[in-house]
Amino acid sequence: MDSEKDLSAHEPLPTNALRENASETAQNLTHDGNPRIQFTPAAKPDRTRRISDDEDVLTFVAPVIRRRQSVASIPQVISEKEKDRRKREKELEEKNVNIDEHLMAHQDVAERYKTRINMEKPGESFGLSSQQAEQWLHEHGPNVLTPPKKRHPFFKFLKCLSSLFNVLLIVAGILEYVLLATGFKENLQNTYLGAILIMVAHINAFIEFYQQQRSQALLESFLNMIPAKCMCFRDGKMAQLEASSLVPGDVVFVRMGDKTPADILVFSASDCKVDNSSLTGESEPQERTRDNDMENPLEASNVMFNSALVVSGEAYGIVIRTGDSTVLGQIAYLTAGEEKTTSPLTHEIDNFVKIIATIAIVTAIIFFGIAFPVNNNKVSLALNFACGIFVAWVPQGLPATVTMLLTIAAKRMASQNVLVKDLQGVETLGAITLLATDKTGTLTRNQMTAANIWTCGELYEASNRAGAEKDVAGPDKPGVIDILHISALCSRAKFDRTDVPVKEREVLGDATESGLIRYAAEQLSNFDILSEYPKVFELPFNSYTKWHMSIHKKPHASGPLTLYIKGAPERVWRLCDRILTGPDGECVELTDDCKNAYDETYEHMASRGHRVLGFAEMLLSGDQYPEDFAFDKKAKNYPLGGFIFVGLASLEDPPKHGVREAIGRCRAAGIKVIMVTGDHPLTAEAIGRKINLVLSDTKAMVAKRKGRPLEQIAEDEFKAIVVHGEQIDNLTDAEWDNIFWKDEIIFARTSPKHKLEIVRRAQSMGHIVGVTGDGVNDSPALKKANLGIAMNMSGSDVSKEAASMILLDDNFASTVRGIEEGRLIFVNLKKSIQYTLSHITPEVVPNLLYVIVPIPLPLSAILILVIDLGFELIAALSFAWDPPETEEGLMKLPPRKPVTPETSNIFRRRALRRTRSRFDEEAGVVISPESLTKMQKFLHNGRQLFTKEYWRDKMENTGAEVLVDGPLLSWAYLEIGMIEAVGALTSYFVVMYRRGISPHDAHIMQKGAGSPTNYWTKDAKSYNGIDGPTQVNILAEAQSMYYWSVMTMQMFNLFACKTRLTLPFGKYMFANHATFYCIVAGAALAAFIIYTPGVEVVFKTTRSLLPLYWLVPMAFGFVLIGYATLRMIIRRKTRPVKWNPEIQGLQMYPTIRTLRSMSSRSI
User: Fold this and answer.
1) Catalytic residue among 250, 258, 263, 438
2) How do residues 190-201 score in pLDDT, each as one tens digit?
3) 729 is catalytic
């Protein structure tokens, strides 16, 4: 929620130097305002107010600079969904009439809407007649926002259930029941397997469905912002009506505590102020009057927006927009039009599932055909084998593992003040490459604090702080006591109570006056005694005079009354003819030297991004103004000149504690942090330079340093840029790209639509975008971003609903902790998946040997499921508690999907293929394809699979690290997987050999003279003196050993998968105690399945397995650790870790130092 107010109490700077500097950086601006949010239809030469000729005003405008062609040669590629969205927006823009009523006379507006108002006595306005209102209601519709389209929860659940992974599990489960038809008795145990597979699919779907339901209330929260009832004039009578019945032309009355029921034009107001913070980003209450001097309706002082809270006073107005046509309605439309971006983790898991599904289906079909002749054309055995292959390939526990790991990480993040609404957001936060943050309330405290004081020719620091270059102001300094008294008395802010110390009190008032009165209370030991100087007359601050005057019963040598005034320095300076020079009221006439000193100090304060106020006083003569003098606003019998200029005070919204180091850590981690604010560009840049966000020179600074014209500065000569919101609508694709290739970026004076466009443009380059926001106006960008981050304490309900994550303490530093946690969970997820997939090969290989060789089946389908959902699931969870391998390593690595000109071109080239567009290199434009039917699109996508371009794009190295990549699959399937398969088969045959059956005998018995069922059943014929029941027991013991061997070697693999930067031994192996707990739990489960009486009936295991056999898989486990060590040593030499380069100039010391730390440094 960022302030829309300018510096210096919202007056521009006065000096010629600043005028020249601004004219260099702000030439020939064309303002094409946002037609849906800014409502400014015509191009204008600048965005200044219409003011009188005698005012001294600097016009701050921003240049539209033509940049060179972007580094990335392919421009933004627009998908069909994006085209449809733009078409809908354009249709809505044509439907809605732009707001221009704020520039019209009130009676002209009344005539437009055929209503009657009374300017002199607004309470006697006639308004619309009932017949008119009914007609307008039929034409415009009710004053409500269009509710979001709802889908029945059952169909949402079916959609979740129909995901590819869940379909695989359901199909596998159904096939297990199909086997009953081929042999009921032999396949009865498979009914347990089928039920478990189907149940797992439904559990996965329910978890996803539950996550979606939690975010359902987003658009409904907009509806709650509109008040239910309002006071309206109909037929000359004021009555309380339903807000939904309001129509354009209705005359309404609002007062303190009310919510504005529609967009209204004010024609009468009394001390009315509204809180527009959630709509426009203005942090302070905005005054509303009948008069207006602003061109932009968002800044107009005579327009009140739908749902804005009236914080003081009252007003009468004409309804000019209702329902979806209001500003609130259009923000809701922007939010509804944005689809939630799929998280990188979801996308990568989907790709992995497609690969696994393809492999599983193809191998199952192939080996079903092979099994037919091998098994004497017996359908039951061939189908059973195909099901076993299919089940073996599918890692049933993977969705549950991922979900539980993310849940554990989310709970850990919540303890660090980061609340995750969407579990996928945990990992997304660690993957972001660009973080767009607002200023006020996120980077800064949204609490104005006194910074500098200039009085009696001396410039002071307002308080004692680290790095202070000037003396600290105190009541004993000349002139300071006067500024403190003016700050305390000439103010509408006040403390909520006086019976507690000042530091424990809350200030009631706007941000600027609150900052001044708190500073005065801290400096004055007798602050509460100032109440003895009552206020006898007051002229509040308003947008016309831009100063605040008060007269108090404060006696002095010349009389009983003292006049104080504060406000915009230029306005206050014009009312003065003398300036304070001494502690006892000594003053001199204003001279050119005084003016130069004033200008120099003012420029210094404003250039630091401070808000500057001027202070003056007059000791009223008792002869002219006795104690009982009656001041009158209408008679204007109060002084309007001849004041004594006391000095200047500057206030700043200081950065939050820890923000500087947090942004520094983000940048050191390779994340681009940009500021998107509604504040003034100078203020934004000044704050940015304090918090590590901007370190380099901007184009204007380079031009000034090199003494060259601005237009001669090339793009590669500067790395920082400040973009004014008025430029955004006119930027070309190349200009957008050139902005995002800068290292340091600030967008100032932005609207909600601008913020949304910034997110879209960054995503079109391949950025994974995180956005922070707290207002209703932020909700479209929060929803569109890969990760929306809302504020808990200052955030609106709408922004919290739109976001995927909420900062509980509103502190940006919490985001950095979340990023580190997100990176850690990605590393741990990858290790967990690497570990989990390693057992697939020792599950698939025995099924293949069962058919091809053949040999007795070493591992049944039910034992495969026990591995996947038993020990493996427990052990895989232990990675959730793995700490980082090195203390700072994670935050010194680049993002896992870095964005460079090369990767951006790859990203857009793939977008070209998806959208069937082509890039004309000569013209530098993307040419969209002709419209195709669904069948044509399907055939086109099918043909793409057989094109060279498709596979080149698939295989092209983007430099990104994905969750499941080639090295991981190689480790799991070809390297560790094969070692485990060999080890398990060795253990399997050792058991058989010890029971009198050699591998050759096992092959002969399985192949048989006729049907394979002649052996390994209870009624089988004897082989070498081994009867049928003994054969069954031997096979059960061998299968139990195979199962136990996979579990044992996976224990060693658990440690082998832990490291990416170091060798798999040392103290890091013992850093996670949960690993050992999970090993014990998993081993206990395996022992329960093998050695518990009665359980062998279900799993076909045996209790006769000797512990002596455990030594065989343990030996292979040590071989596995040795191989992992050798692999790591070779990988270090061939593919060393690439760390981020150091960024010169980062200030990594605390944003705020305590006095104690400062004093300790000086000792």
Assistant:
1) 438
2) 677 788 888 888
3) no
